[in-house]
Backbone:
């Protein structure tokens, strides 16, 4: 039941993101808007709900399958990028560096710290 409640919360955030994108005519997808809403919600609460965790863990295993339709769609519009290879390359490079830096920052922020040998010997 926690997974179902978590999936319902994820779906509600996606729908709110879709409504915001439609009403405000934002240039992002509804999925990105919903994900930003969820990130804001989690930052404000300073913890991850057990329900959202139960719903998201099985989805992470299916992540490659969930991304595949978007990747396939790019191949159909590849001709539109033909004259803009520099902008696409810069966007891909900057996006990759930004995502790696963000992931590193999040890992350092939320992963438990390993004790150094000095800290271990001081406890003994």
Residues:
């Amino acid at each position: 039941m926690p997974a179902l409640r978590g999936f319902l919360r994820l779906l509600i955030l996606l729908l709110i993101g879709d409504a915001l994108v439609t009403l405000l005519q934002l240039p992002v997808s509804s999925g990105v808007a919903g994900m930003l809403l969820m990130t804001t919600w989690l930052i404000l609460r300073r913890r991850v709900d057990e329900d959202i965790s139960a719903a998201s863990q099985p989805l992470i295993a299916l992540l490659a399958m969930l991304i595949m339709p978007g990747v396939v769609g790019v191949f159909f519009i590849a001709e539109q990028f033909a004259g803009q290879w520099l902008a696409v390359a810069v966007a891909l490079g900057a996006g990759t560096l930004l995502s790696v830096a963000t992931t590193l920052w999040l890992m350092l922020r939320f992963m438990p710290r390993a004790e150094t040998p000095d800290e271990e010997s001081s406890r003994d």
In short: Helices lie at 2-24, 30-45, 50-61, 63-76, 85-110, 117-123.
